[in-house]
Amino acid sequence: MKFYEYNAKEIFKKEGIPTPKGGVARTPDEVEKIAKRLGKPVAIKSQILTGGRGKAGGIKFAENPESAYKISGELLSSPIRGETVEMVLVEEKIPIEREFYIGIIVDRTMKKPLIMASSEGGVEIEELAREHPEKIVKYYINPLEEFLPYEAREIARKMGMQGKLIGQVGGIIWRLYNLFKKYDALLAEINPLVLSKDNLIAVDAKLEVDDDAIFRHPELREQEEYESSEFAFVKLDGNIAVIGNGAGLTLTAMDLIKLQGGEPATFLDIGGGASPDIIKKALNLVISYPDVDVVFLNVLGGITRADDVAKGVVEALKDADRDVPLVIRLTGTNEEEGQRILKEAGIPFETSLEKAAAKAVEIARGL
Questions:
Q1: Is 101 noted as a catalytic residue in this protein?
Q2: 6, 69, 101, 177: which one is catalytic?
Q3: Which of 120, 338, 339, 366 has the highest CB neighbour count under 10 A?
Q4: What residue ranges in 67-119 does DSSP mark as E strands?
Q5: Which carries the bigger pLDDT value, residue 80 or residue 105?
Q6: Residues 6 or more apart from 256 whose CB is under 8 A from it?
Q7: Residue 16 and residue 18: Cα distance in Å, rounded?
Q8: Fold annotation for 98-221
Q9: Where are the alpha helices (DSSP H) in the chain?
Q10: Which CATH superfamily is domain 21-92 in?
Q11: Residue 263 among the catalytic residues
Q12: Tens digit of pLDDT for each residue in 311-341?
């Protein structure tokens, strides 16, 4: 279950992690009222679940309520990373002295929670991790033992913190891990954690809770807005995004990509009975990653109808932010209708999984 930023911040604040003052709005009038109440420059942040919204123009700043009204009118109902912006978070604009990064995930290989932290946060954190991995502090935690405050302070020291910042940053790390454990999270992230006038503030917040544990947290389902994961997704290091309807089909497609000498960039399982909207969201998600050069969509229609898949593909390509080659293997339920829709839209497809995989790798090599 993924939470919108403002939902995550409500939980972070409850657990003792400072966040900016603000409120959620669904109309420009509501945005203007919140900006007037805050009485200072504001950040207007699109509430979507896809990453990279800052680079895609989903975060704007306004110096006064009138400007906030105008900017929010442009953001609301606009498409950002394949999602329509239905609400925005209006917050006080925080003066930034320094930015840090703190994130916690489950490392399934090590079977332990992993804390990652850096003295450099912000929108370029992925490039930092790729080009300068030595700047990312990694600390594994034994889930059967208590995570103690001194351990969090040690992480802060390894980040390069000095003086009172050791205790301040360590305190945020300690609280974030306790939140991560308390809510059965798969991801808890602050990027950036901002130092402003001697105060640390979580300017952004991400939280994803294990769907299989949600029965233990009925209070989370009572949040005004939350959205469960619509598909299983894992980002990988290759350049060929793989999407399938079922874990087995997706893994098989990935194996064939590897067999042909290619490298998968994603594992994305849309599951059974996926609607055109889910197909569209899945394609827009993988296309949003700049290292994805080719998309390989492998659908064997059973519960999932081939015509629904084709409709989703056509809609996604109309609104796509990037022109990425798409290789489709489409067969099964309603395949004739699905293939007709693709043909009329001028979108090529294959019925053979092996041929489609080989074609995806060939295109990637050519690029």
A1: yes
A2: 101
A3: 338
A4: 79-80, 83-84, 88-92, 98-107, 112-118
A5: 105
A6: 353, 354, 357, 358
A7: 6
A8: D-amino Acid Aminotransferase; Chain A, domain 1 (3.30.470)
A9: 5-14, 28-38, 65-75, 125-131, 149-158, 164-182, 218-221, 247-259, 276-287, 306-319, 335-344, 353-366
A10: ATP-grasp fold, A domain (3.30.1490.20)
A11: no
A12: 989 988 887 778 899 999 999 989 999 999 9
Angle ∠(230,85,191) on CA atoms, nearest 5: 75
Look at residue 134 in the predicted model and tell me its pLDDT. Answer: 86
Whole-angstrom Cα distance, residue 50 to residue 233? Answer: 12
Task: Please report, as a single letter, which amino acid is at residue 138.
Answer: K
Q: How far apart are CA 203 and CA 52, in angstroms?
A: 15
pTM of the predicted structure, to 2 decimals: 0.70
240-244 and 264-269 strand pairing:
parallel
Asked if the peptide bond before residue 192 counts as cis, ω within 30 degrees of 0, the response is: yes
| Segments of the chain assigned to CATH 3.30.1490.20 | 21-92
Give the C-alpha separation, 21 to 173, whole Å.
21
Please, are residues 242 and 257 in contact by the beta-carbon 8 Å criterion? yes
Task: Give me 299's structure tokens.
Answer: 């659908």
Q: What is the DSSP letter of 5?
A: H
CB crowding 220-243: b at 16 or more within 10 Å, else e: beeeeebeeebbeeebeebbbbbb
* Per-residue pLDDT, 225: 52
At 92, give phi and psi (nearest 5°). -60, 140
| Residues 232-366, CATH architecture | 3-Layer(aba) Sandwich (3.40)
Domain with CATH 3.30.470.20 in the chain: 98-221
What the block records as the tokens of 207 is: 């939280």
C-alpha dist (Å) from residue 312 to 266, 306, 338, 349: 19, 10, 10, 14
pLDDT computed for residue 137 by the predictor: 96
Which residues of the chain form CATH 3.40.50.261? 232-366
pLDDT per position as a tens digit, 25-71: 999 999 999 999 999 999 999 999 877 788 889 999 999 999 999 99
